[in-house]
Backbone:
């Protein structure tokens, strides 16, 4: 019996097949399905390689900028970032308390050395 005929006979549940034929048909189905999965994985890997190659070229062109220009832009952006940070913190405090931003004065912003998120700290407090 041919493999294609065997697979056609396997579709029909009323067909009488010997145990060897059923086993052979099962192995054929398994091999075909593994081949399809392997081909799809190879295609996905090729797509990822192409995307990484394209991204690598963009990063190289960005890194070719003049270092002096980068240092000048960093100095001005730090001041702007601090002002933006103060405004964001003020707005979030005003939203949380329900007050207007006129009543809130941010005097100091201090970064903590805590590397754990609030969720991680909360689980340790519960599981004592």
Residues:
């Amino acid at each position: 019996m041919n493999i294609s005929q065997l697979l056609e006979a396997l579709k029909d549940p009323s067909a009488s097949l010997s145990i060897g034929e059923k086993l052979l048909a099962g192995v054929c189905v398994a091999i075909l399905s593994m081949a399809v999965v392997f081909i799809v994985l190879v295609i996905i890997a090729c797509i990822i390689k192409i995307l990484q190659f394209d991204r690598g070229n963009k990063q190289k062109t960005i890194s070719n900028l003049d270092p002096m220009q980068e240092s000048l832009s960093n100095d001005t952006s730090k001041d702007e970032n601090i002002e933006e940070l103060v405004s964001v913190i003020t707005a979030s405090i005003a939203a949380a308390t329900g007050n207007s931003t006129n009543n809130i004065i941010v005097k100091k912003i201090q970064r903590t050395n805590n590397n754990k998120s609030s969720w991680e700290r909360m689980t340790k407090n519960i599981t004592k």
About this structure: Residues 9 and 17 are 8 Å apart (CA to CA). The chain has a mean pLDDT of 76.
